[in-house]
């Protein structure tokens, strides 16, 4: 039986779906409020949380795992990608290639997982730009939306700079800076670490123990091997997939 057939019963309830859809945007609202009050000690961690929640939402949208109609899912992919200063459709192209050819020569997204760590540190930010180029090359049929989303990320930066010069508010620029750092380090925490740590690693096991009641970000880390075998399972339900479905082959994500 195919993995997607086995996992068909693992779908978000209406309440879970609302939570998964609203989480990054509620966090964004909390960031805007605390930043506008000048509470930077709280606003900056909230900006990091927005990026992580946006990453999870973008990832689930890439796999159409949120139970949305295709048109709504595509719109969400665009919007959640912007939280990361990314083209959501561009990320989808390289991510689906990663699933089809995991860590092979034609898997540009997974390449950092095969490098030495020092190379990931210095080349990671450039690698992100390379992925944007590769997504345009690999999926010419989505170039239009990819270019529009890229233009939108640049427009956001222009708006944030304009707001700073006009009103002296750094709210937008600080968020852009946090999102840039998160994006530049994406090859470390979204590629190198998940593929290098075994599911038996103590950190992975600790994350698995708390993923069901804390945050889907931990689930995406703790159950990365499960996700590779059951990609249509929403990130928030990966802990259930690990408990209820046949375990993936040991080589499934390497």
Number of helices: 13
Radius of gyration (CA) equals: 18 Å
Give the mean pLDDT.
88
- The portion of residues forming beta strands comes to under 5%
Largest sheet: none
Distance between the termini: 22 Å
Describe the protein.
It is a single chain. With 254 residues, the chain is mainly α. Helices cover 70% and strands 0% of the residues. The chain is built from 13 helices and no strands. The longest helix has 25 residues, at 143-167.
Give a quick set of tags describing it.
single chain; 254 residues; mainly alpha; 13 helices; 70% helix; 0% strand; globular
Write the layout of secondary structure elements.
Elements lengths: L2 H4 L7 H23 L3 H23 L7 H14 L4 H13 L16 H22 L4 H25 L3 H14 L1 H11 L5 H10 L4 H7 L1 H6 L8 H7 L10
Helix pairs in contact: 2-3, 3-4, 3-8, 5-6, 6-9, 7-8, 10-11
Q: How would you concisely characterize the structure shown here?
A:
By secondary structure, the protein is mainly α.
């Amino acid at each position: 039986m195919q993995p997607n057939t086995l996992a068909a019963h693992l779908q978000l309830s209406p309440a879970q779906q609302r939570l998964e859809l609203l989480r990054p945007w509620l966090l964004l609202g909390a960031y805007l409020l605390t930043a506008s009050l000048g509470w930077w000690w709280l606003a900056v961690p909230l900006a990091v949380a927005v990026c992580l929640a946006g990453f999870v939402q973008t990832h689930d949208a890439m796999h159409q795992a949120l139970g949305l109609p295709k048109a709504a899912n595509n719109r969400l992919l665009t919007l959640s990608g912007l939280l990361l200063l990314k083209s959501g459709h561009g990320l989808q192209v390289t991510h689906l290639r990663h699933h089809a050819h995991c860590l092979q020569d034609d898997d540009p997204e997974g390449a950092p997982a095969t490098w030495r760590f020092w190379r990931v540190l210095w080349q990671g930010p450039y690698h992100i730009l390379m992925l944007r180029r590769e997504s345009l090359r690999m999926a010419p049929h989505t170039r239009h939306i990819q270019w529009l989303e890229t233009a939108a990320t640049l427009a956001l930066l222009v708006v944030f700079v304009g707001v700073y010069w006009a009103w002296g508010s750094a709210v937008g620029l600080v968020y852009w800076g946090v999102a840039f750092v998160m994006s530049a380090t994406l090859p470390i925490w979204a590629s190198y670490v998940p593929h290098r740590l075994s599911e038996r690693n103590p950190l992975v096991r600790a994350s698995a123990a708390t993923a069901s009641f804390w945050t889907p970000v931990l689930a995406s880390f703790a159950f990365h091997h499960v996700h590779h075998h059951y990609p249509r399972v929403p990130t928030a339900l990966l802990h259930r997939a690990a408990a209820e479905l046949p375990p993936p082959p040991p080589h499934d994500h390497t």
